[in-house]
Amino acid sequence: MKLWLGLILCTGYLLISTAKAEQWHIASPNGEINVQLELTTDALQYQVKFQQQPVIKASKLGLAFKNQAKLQSNLQVTKVAERQQDQNWQPLWGQRATIRDNFREITLTLRETGDKARQLQLVFRVYDDGVAFRYKVPAQAELQQVVISDELTEFNFAQNYAAWWQQAYQPQSYEYQYLNSALSSVNVAHTPLTLTDDGIAIAIHEAALVDYAAMTLRHQGENLIQFTADLVPWSNGDKVRTQTPFQSPWRTIQIAKNAVALLNSDLILNLNEPANAKIDTSYIKPGKYMGIWWEMHIGLKDWSPGPKQGATTARAKQYIDFASQHDIDGVLIEGWNQGWEGDWWQRPPTFSFTKPVKGLDMAEVTQYAKSKGVQIIGHHETAAGVAYYEAQMTAGMAYYQKLGIHSVKMGYVGPLLDQKEWHDGQFMVNHFQKVVDTAAAHGLMVNAHETVKDTGLSRTNPNLMTRESVRGMEYNGGSPDTGNSPNHTVIIPFTRGLAGPTDFTPGIFNFNYQKYRPNNRVPSTLANQLSLYVTLYSPLQMVADLPEHYQDSKGKMHPAFAFIDAVPTDWQQSIALQGEIGEFLVVARQDKHSERWFVGASNNQTARKIALPLNFLKANTDYQLTLYADAADADWRKNPSAYQIFSQVVTADSVIPLTLASGGGAALELIPFNVKN
Ligand code: NOJ
Ligand code: CA
Predict the structure, then answer these.
(1) Is the pLDDT of residue 9 over 80?
(2) 479 confidence band (pLDDT: 50, 70, 90)
(3) Which of 247, 408, 660, 668 could form a Cys-Cys staple with 378, CB 3.0–4.6 A?
C-alpha cells in the first residue's frame, strides 16, 4: 500500500502508469516462493518473496542495444502462457543419480507500443529452490544483427544481507579469496554471489551461459542494496554481439532457509538443456587422477626442460605404477610438450600441442599406462593465447585421440586473453564452447583451468567434467602467490561450488615443503585434506601429492591413504547436512555403485566439536564405520599431520561426536554389512 501512495504522490505520470499496471503472479510448487510481475509504461518489473518476506523488491527488466533505443519501456503484453512441469532425469554423472525438475513457468510476450513494435519475451520459472528468468528475443525486422550494450536487469534487494563475494574484473579472474561484508559494501561482484540473514540464504548466479557474456553484479544508484546485471564487455565495450533470435542465459536466484540447504539445490543443472541422447559418452568416466604437478608448484621441479624438468618418462612411469596400484584412473603430465622454457606465463605462448619435450616419450608412456590400466591425461596450457591455441587445438586433440587419451586439462594463465579480452566475456564463452565441442569430437573429457565460471553446461555437454575457476590448492604450493586461509575451503562450497564441479585438487599429505617454499603452507590438517574429497564436489578429483608422500621408501602406505583409496567420485545421492559459510561444513554422499556412504566434515581455523547423527543411513542395517579424525593435538599450524583412525559398528540411530581441530576435519567411510528386516 505504501508503495502505491508514494507513486501517486510523486508525479501525475506515475499515477497514470500505476493505474494502468497489469500484474501476474506465479508461485513455487510448494508455495513458499512467490514472484510478482508488473507492467507499467516504464518497464516490466519483477518482485520475489520467500515465505511472505520480500527478497527482491520491484526490479526492472530490459535490454539496451548499440545504435538502437532501449527495449524496456512502452511495452504491452500480447500473450501470456503458463505451464508446469515435474520430471525426474538422470545425469550421466553427478552428485545425484536422479534429479527432480519441478517448476511453474510463465512466459510473457511483449511488444513495443510505438512504431517499431519490437518484440521480446520474458520467461520466469519458479522452483521450490529458487527463481530463474531469461530474455528471449525473436527474429524480427527491427532487430537482426545486434550488439547488446547493456542488460538492464535489476536486483533490488530487500535487505542489506551479509554477502560472500569476489570482486569482478581482476587480473587473476576467479582466483581470489572471498570477501565477507554487508551487501551495501559490494561494488562489482562475480556470481555466484551468496547472501545470508536469519532464516534465509540466497545465491544469485546464472545458468546456461551460451554465446553471451558472463553476468557480474554492479552496485547501483543511491539505494545501497540495488544492483544491476553488468555483462563482462569485449575490449571495445560491446557486451554481447548476436543476432535474433537469441536468448539470454537464465538469471538465477536460489533461495533456501539456510546456507547449507543451498548446497542441496539442483536449480542450475535443471535450467540447462539435456544432452543429445545420440552422442557417444562411452569415454566419459568420473574418477581420481594424479599428476606431475604439485612438485612443480612447490618448486621441487619445473615445467621447463633442463635439470629440474618434471615431465620425464621415468617419473611418469612412477606415477602410473602408483595409480595402477590404487585404482587411480588417470595421470596428468604437465610440461609434457615443447615450449615451456623460462617464464612462459609472461610472454605470448610458444607451446607445441603435438610435440613432446625431450626426455618424455609420449608413445612409451601412454603404452605403459595402457598396460597398467591407467589413462594419461593430456595438458594444454595456452598462456591465455586463444588464437594461438585455436590454430593448433584440433591437431592437439587429434594427437591425443591417436594415443588413446580420453581426457585433457587446459589452462589460460594470464590476466587477459590474447592480451585484451576478459576470461569471462563472450570471447571466452564462445572459445570455450569450441573447446568442449572439439574435445567431444575427439572423445576427450575436459577439465579447464582459468576459464569462465560454470553455469551447469555439463548437463548439455557431459564431457565437460570439471573446472578450476577458483583459487585452488596451487596457491598453497607457492606458485604463483601466497597461500589460502584455512576458512577458504569452507567458503567455496557455498559460493563457487554452487556453480558446479570444482577442481580444487585436494590430498596433500606432506606439509613440510618449506625447504623449497619457506613462506607457504597448506592451511589444514591431514584429516581436513581427506574431508575435502567429500565436501568439495568434482567428478574428476585429484590425488594431488607426490607418490612418495603417500608411501614410505619401503613401499609401506600411509594408513590414512585408505580413505582416498576408497572414496569414489560419482554419487547416488549427496546431502549437505550441517555447516555455516566460512565456519564448517558436513556433507554425506552415497556411492553411485554401492551402498557405501562417505562423509566429510571440513573445518575453519576455530577448533570445534560437532555431533553427527547418521540418520541418513538405511534403517535396520549395521554399518562398519572407519573414521579418519584429527588427533587430539592436531592443529594446522603446529601439528598438521597428527591423525587417528577409529573403527566401530554403527546404525542410522548412532550419533558420532566429532572433534575438529583448527584447520581440521574428519572423513568417514560407512560400509553396510548386516541388513536386518
Ligand atoms: C595454472 C593451473 O591452475 C595449474 O593447475 C597448472 O599447473 C598451471 N597453470 C600450469 O599450466
Ligand atoms: Ca589456476
Answers:
(1) no
(2) low
(3) 408
Q: Is it the case that residue 380 has pLDDT exceeding 70?
A: yes
Q: How far apart are CA 198 and CA 510, in angstroms?
A: 40
Which whole number is the average pLDDT over 653-664? 98
Q: Which whole-number Å values give the CA distances from 653 to 585, 594, 615, 617, 629, in the listed order?
A: 21, 21, 6, 9, 21
Q: Answer yes or no: are the C-beta atoms of 670 and 568 closer than 8 Å.
A: no
Euclidean distance between CA atoms 326 and 324, whole angstroms: 5
- State whether residue 295 is helix, strand or coil: helix
Q: What is the mean pLDDT of residues 246-250?
A: 98
Res. 115 pLDDT band, cuts 50 70 90: confident
Task: Looking at the CA of residue 449, tell me the nearest atom of ligand 1.
Answer: 3
CA 132–ligand 2 middle distance (angstroms) = 30
Task: Tell me which ligand sits closest to the C-alpha of residue 292.
Answer: 1
Query: For residue 266, what is its C-alpha cell?
Result: 539442483
Q: Please tell me whether the peptide bond between 506 and the residue prior to it is cis, using omega within 30 degrees of 0.
A: no
pLDDT above 50: residue 12? no
CA distances from 350 to 302, 342, 344, 614 (A): 17, 11, 8, 54
Please give the full DSSP string across 522-558, using - where no structure is assigned. --S-HHHHHHHHHHS--SEEE--S-GGGTB-TT-PBP
Ligand 1 probe mutation, 451, 474, 503, most atoms within 8 A of CB: 474
- The three-point CA angle 379-317-450 to 5° equals 20
Domains and CATH numbers, the chain: 7-270 (2.70.98.10), 287-561 (3.20.20.70)
Q: How far apart are CA 32 and CA 653, in angstroms?
A: 31
Asked if 474 is an active-site residue, the reply is yes
At 75, give phi and psi (nearest 5°). -110, 150
Pocket test for ligand 1, best of 413, 423, 451 (most atoms within 8 A of CB): 413
The residue annotated as part of the active site, out of 151, 295, 421, 474, is 474
Q: How far apart are CA 166 and CA 156, in angstroms?
A: 19
Q: Which residues contact 563 (CB under 8 A, 6 or more apart)?
A: 530, 533, 626, 628, 667, 669
55, 49 Cβ separation under 8 angstroms: yes
Rounded CA-CA distance 111/445 in Å is 43
Residues with CB under 6 A from ligand 1: 293, 334, 381, 411, 413, 449, 468, 474
Identify which of 302, 334, 380 to mutate to test ligand 1's pocket (most ligand atoms within 8 A of the CB): 334
Mean pLDDT of the chain: 95
CA–centroid distance, 411 to ligand 1, in Å, is: 6
pLDDT of 544 strictly over 60 = yes
> Cis omega (within 30 of 0) on the bond before 249?
no
How many CB atoms sit inside 10 A of residue 620's CB?
Answer: 11
Ligand nearest to the CA of 383: 1
**Segment holding 562, helix H or strand E:** helix 561-566
Paired strand residues for 49: 34, 54
- Grid-cell match 582459468, residue found: 450
Angle among Cα 141, 147, 150 to the nearest 5 degrees reads 115
Which H, E and C letters describe 87-144, residue by residue?
A: EEECCCCCCCCCEEEEEEEEEEEEEECCCCCCEEEEEEEEECCEEEEEEEECCECCEC
